Amino acid sequence: MKLGELAAQLSCTVEGNPNVEIRGLAAIQQAGPGELSFIESEKYARFLKSTRAEALILDWRTHRPDIPCIRSDQPRLAFARALALYYQPRLPVPGVHPSAVIGTEVRLGADVHIGAHVVIADDVTIGDGAILFPNSTIYSGVRIGARTVIHANCAIHERTEIGDDCILQSGTVVGTEGFGFVPTLEGTWHKMPQSGYVRIEDNVEIGSNTAIDRPAVGYTRIGRGSKLDNLVMIGHGSQIDDNCLLIAQVGLAGGVQVGRNVVLAGQVGVAGHASIGDRAMVSAKGGVPSDVEPGTVVSGSPAMPHALWLRTSALIRRLPELFQNVRELQHKLALLQRRLQIGDE
Amino acid sequence: MKLGELAAQLSCTVEGNPNVEIRGLAAIQQAGPGELSFIESEKYARFLKSTRAEALILDWRTHRPDIPCIRSDQPRLAFARALALYYQPRLPVPGVHPSAVIGTEVRLGADVHIGAHVVIADDVTIGDGAILFPNSTIYSGVRIGARTVIHANCAIHERTEIGDDCILQSGTVVGTEGFGFVPTLEGTWHKMPQSGYVRIEDNVEIGSNTAIDRPAVGYTRIGRGSKLDNLVMIGHGSQIDDNCLLIAQVGLAGGVQVGRNVVLAGQVGVAGHASIGDRAMVSAKGGVPSDVEPGTVVSGSPAMPHALWLRTSALIRRLPELFQNVRELQHKLALLQRRLQIGDE
Amino acid sequence: MKLGELAAQLSCTVEGNPNVEIRGLAAIQQAGPGELSFIESEKYARFLKSTRAEALILDWRTHRPDIPCIRSDQPRLAFARALALYYQPRLPVPGVHPSAVIGTEVRLGADVHIGAHVVIADDVTIGDGAILFPNSTIYSGVRIGARTVIHANCAIHERTEIGDDCILQSGTVVGTEGFGFVPTLEGTWHKMPQSGYVRIEDNVEIGSNTAIDRPAVGYTRIGRGSKLDNLVMIGHGSQIDDNCLLIAQVGLAGGVQVGRNVVLAGQVGVAGHASIGDRAMVSAKGGVPSDVEPGTVVSGSPAMPHALWLRTSALIRRLPELFQNVRELQHKLALLQRRLQIGDE
Fold first, then answer.
1. Which residues of chain C neighbour B188 with C-beta distances below 8 Å?
2. B138 falls in which pLDDT band (50, 70, 90)?
3. This protein's superkingdom (chains A, B, C) (predicted)?
C-alpha cells in the first residue's frame, strides 16, 4: 500500500512523498526500508534521528523532514489502526466441527464456529458469530454473546454469562467455585457452596491462564471494555467496573470493588473487600490493604501515595548512612554533655 | 422453605416468626425480601440496622428484634449449611462418554463419570463415584480416589496419587516435572530427572490453573483437608500438612515444609527448604526466606513478626520527616559546638 | 546395578566396596539401605554423619570412610546422570491417535506421536520424533522442532516457532496476543493488533500454565537452553537470551531484554523495556524498574544491590529504635540549649 493511501484510510494527512510503498510496520528501533513506524513518547524521541524507517507516524510537534510522515494527534492509535490494515488474526470459518460434543437445548447463533473437540454441556446459548477454538469446555447453563472469541483449552463454568465482542485467550477459566471455606471447631475447613454468578460484560478481553471465580452469593463482574492480562486472579464476588486495565499476575481477593478506568499494574494484590476509586492507579507489585481514593496513584506494599513511595524508596537506600549519622550525633552530644558537665536531666 | 423448617435442618432455634418463606440466601448488604443472610464479624455489624433481609442467622449477642432469626454459635458455618440446602453444583450422571479415550488396564470404580474427550492413559485407577469433567488428561499410572471431582482441562501426570473426596478446579496441573537443573561448567543447564511422586490426600481442594510439581526423588505432598486456591505454585518436594489454606498465587519453592493449619495469604512466596510451623500465618505478599515458628504471624518481605511489620510499615512513611529531623539535629549541634567553641574531640 | 558399574557409566571412580547393590536414589536425609545419595553444598554437610545411604556421591574434599562413594567434581551433576539410569519419564510410542484432528498441509516428521484429541490446524510443521500429549491445540502456521515434547492441554498459537529438543509442561500457552491497548479520548481501550512472532529456540524447557505472548510487531524470543518454570508470564516482545533460568511466577512486562545466563528467582517482576545484563541475578520477589548491570545481584522492590538490600532489610527492623533514638536526641539537645540559654540561631 502506498503511504498516501494508508493515510487516507486513517483520515490523516501526509507530509513528504505519499508514493513510498509501505510493506509493513515495525517498532522505531527495528524499522527498515518499506516499513512504517511511529514515535509517541519522549522516551523514543532519541530514536528519531537514527531510524531507518521508510515513513513515520508523528504528532504535530515532532519533525524529521527527510522521512515522509503521517500526522496524527495520537500516533500510537494511528499505528494500531494502520497495523490492522496489514494484519488480522486468522479466524476460522463458521461451522461446527464434527468432533465437537454438544448437549441438549444448546442454542447456537448464526455463523458460529465450534472448533474440534469443544465440549458444550446442556442448556447453553452462544450468540451469532461467536468463535470457540478447540478443546474448550462450556459447562451447562452458560451464555456467550455475539462475536465473542474463546481461544483454545478454556473452561467456562456454570452460572457464567459472557457478553458480546469479548476475547478470552487460551487456558482461561471463568466461573469456578470461589475459595470459600469456614473454619470449624475441629480445625478443618467446611466448604461454602458457591451459588453466585459471573457476569462478563461486552467488549472485555481476558488473557491466558487467568482465573475468575464465582461467589457464594451475588455476582463477580467484569465491566464493559475492561481488559485483563495473563495469569490474573479475580476472587469471588469482586466487581470491576468499565474500562479497567488489570496487568499480568494481578490478584484480587474476594469482594473487591474496582471503579472505572482503574489501572492495576503487574503483580498487584488487593485485599478482600477493598474499594479502588475511579481512575486510580496502583503501580506494579503494589499491595493494597484497604480503600484507594479515586484518581490517585499508589505504590508499594502496603500501598502509599506514589510520590511518598518514590521518596521513601530512595530514603530506604540511605538507611545505613542515617543510622551512622544518628550514632555520630549520639556520640557528639554525649561528649558535649561531658565537657560541659551537664547531664540529661 | 419456611424459616422454621430450615432451622430444624440446621438443628438451630428460631427467634421470631418461623413461618416466613425463605427463597434464597444473600450477603447482608444485598439481601432483600424472601432472603436469608447472616452477620458474623464486627465488620458487618454496621449493616445490621439497614439490612432488608427477611431473616438473619445471628450469634447469641447480636440483636435485631424485628427480623426473625436463627441463632447459631457459628453463623457463617450455619449460613454455609443453609446455602447447601438451596444450591448444589450440577454434577453429571455416571457413565463414560463415548468420545473419552481410555487406555489399557484402567480400573474404573462404580458410578464414575468420565466426560467427553477425557483421555486416560494406561494403568490408571479411578475410585467409585469419581467425576472427570471434559477435556482432562490423565497420564499413565495415576490413581484417583473415590468421589473426587476433576474439573475440565486438567492434566494429572504420572506418579501422582489423589485421595478421596478431592476437588480440582479447571486447568490445574498436578505431577509435572519439578524445575530441577544442574549448572554445567559450560554455562548450560543439565536436566535433573524428576523421578519422585505427588500425593494429594483426602478431602483436598485445589483451585484453577494451579501447578504442583513432582520432585527428583521423594514426594510432594498435600495433606488431608488442605485447600489451595487458584494459580498456586507448589515446587518439587514441598510438603504441606493437614488443613492448610494457601490463597491465590502463593508460590512455594522446592522442599518447603508447611505444618498443619497454616494459612498462607495471597501472593506469598516461600524460599526453598524453609519450614513453616503449625498454625503459623503469613500475610498477603509476604516473602518467607527461612523458618517460621509455629503459631506466629509474619508479614512483609523479608517476613518479620506481624506487629513489628505494622510498626515499621508506618514508620517507613515517616522517613522523610526522620531524615529532616536528623539534618536539623546535625545543624543545631554544629551550631552549638561553634558557639561554645568546642570541637568533636 | 552395582556401585562400580554405575560409577563406570558416569566415568567416575569408586572409593570403598564397588559391589554394593544400588536399587535407587534418594535425598541425603531420606536415603536408606540400597540407595545412593549425594552431598554438594555445605548446607547438607551436617547430614553426612547421620545418613543411612548405602553409597554417596562426594566431591574430593568430603569424607565418610565407612560408606562407599563415587568421587565427582560435580556431585549434583553426577547424581542427575545416575538418576537418569534409573528413571526416564514414560514417553508414548510414535503414531497419530485416531481421535486427533489434523488440518490440511500439516507436515509431520518421522516417528512423531500425536496424542488423543490433539487438534492441529492447517499449515503446521512438526519435526521428527516430536511428541504431543493429549488435548493440546496447535494453531495454524506453527512450527515445532524435532524431538520436542508438548505435554497435555497446551495451546500453541499462530506465529509461533518452537525449536528442537524443547519440553513444554502441561497447560502452557505460547503465542497469544500481547496485552496491547491504546487509550482513546473517550476513555476506552483500542486493541493494538498483535502481528509479531514468538521464537522459542532449541533446548528450552517451559513449565506448567505459563503464558508467553506475541508482540504487535517484531519478536518475543526465548533463547537456546533457557528454562522457564510454572506460571511465568512473558510479555509481548520480551527477549530472553541463552541459558537463563526464570523461576516460578516471574513476570516480564513488554519489551524486556534479558541477557545470557540470567537468573530471575520466584515472583520477580520486571518493568517494561528494562534490560538485564548477562549473568545478573534478581532475588525472589524482586521488582526491577529499570536496567540491571551484567553480573550483579539485585534484590528487593524497587531492586537495589543485594548487599545493600541485606543491610537495609535488617535496618528496617530497627526503625522503631531509630525513631526513639532521634526523639531522645531532640529532647537532650533542647534541654542542653535551654540550660545554656542558647537558641537555634
1. 225, 243
2. very high
3. Bacteria
pLDDT for res B191: 97
pLDDT at C345 over 60: no
Confidence of residue A36 (pLDDT cuts 50, 70, 90): very high
- The sign of the dihedral angle between the CA atoms of C84, C87, C89, C92 is positive
Three-state SS sequence of chain C: CEHHHHHHHCCCEEECCCCCECCEECCCCCCCCCEEEECCCHHHCCHHHHCCCCEEEECCCCCCCCCCEEECCCHHHHHHHHHHHHCCCCCCCCEECCCCEECCCCEECCCCEECCCCEECCCCEECCCCEECCCCEECCCCEECCCCEECCCCEECCCEEECCCCEECCCCEEEEECCCEEECCCCCEEECCCCCEEEECCCCEECCCCEEEECCCCEEEECCCCEECCCCEECCCCEECCCCEECCCCEECCCCEECCCCEECCCCEECCCCEECCCCEECCCCEECCCECCCCEEECCCCEEHHHHHHHHHHHHCHHHHHHHHHHHHHHHHHHHHHHCCCCC
Nearest CA in chain B to A326: B326
H-type helices in A188-318, by residue range? 306-316
How far apart, in whole angstroms, are the C-alpha atoms of residue B122 and residue B107? 10
Tell me the C-alpha distance between B53 and B79, whole Å.
13
**CA within 13 Å, CB half, C263:** 15
Check residue C340 and give its pLDDT. 85
Mind listing the pLDDT tens digit for each residue in A185-199?
999 999 999 999 999
The answer to whether the Cβ–Cβ distance between C26 and B218 falls below 8 Å is: yes
Q: Which amino acid is at B184?
A: T
* Contact between C153 and B140 using a beta-carbon 8 Å cutoff: no
How open is the CA angle A74-A75-A78, to the nearest 5 degrees?
A: 90
Q: In Å, what is the CA distance from B270 to each residue of A103, B144, B254?
A: 44, 28, 9
pLDDT digits (tens, 9 = 90+) for C176-198: 999 999 999 999 999 999 999 99
More confident site: B340 or A128 = A128
Listed in sequence order, the residues at least 6 apart from A186 whose beta carbon sits closer than 8 Å to its beta carbon are: none
Confidence band of A209 (pLDDT split at 50, 70, 90): very high
Contact A187/B134, CB-based, under 8 Å? no
Which residues lie across from C160 on neighbouring strands?
A: C198
What CA–CA distance (Å, rounded) separates B147 from B112? 8
Whether C193 sits inside 8 A of A87 (CB atoms) is: yes
SS (H, E, C) chain B: CEHHHHHHHCCCEEECCCCCECCEECCCCCCCCCEEEECCCHHHCCHHHHCCCCEEEECCCCCCCCCCEEECCCHHHHHHHHHHHHCCCCCCCCEECCCCEECCCCEECCCCEECCCCEECCCCEECCCCEECCCCEECCCCEECCCCEECCCCEECCCEEECCCCEECCCCEEEEECCCEEECCCCCEEECCCCCEEEECCCCEECCCCEEEECCCCEEEECCCCEECCCCEECCCCEECCCCEECCCCEECCCCEECCCCEECCCCEECCCCEECCCCEECCCCEECCCECCCCEEECCCCEEHHHHHHHHHHHCCHHHHHHHHHHHHHHHHHHHHHHCCCCC
Alpha-carbon distance B305 to nearest alpha carbon in chain C (angstroms): 10
How far is Cα C262 from Cα C246, in angstroms, rounded to an integer? 8
User: Measured in whole angstroms, how far is the alpha carbon of residue C173 from the centre of its chain?
Assistant: 16
- Provide the CB-side half-sphere exposure for C143 (13 A, CA): 11
Task: Tell me the catalytic residues of B.
Answer: 236
* Predicted structure pTM score: 0.97
Of C86, C317, C336, the CB nearest to B308: C317
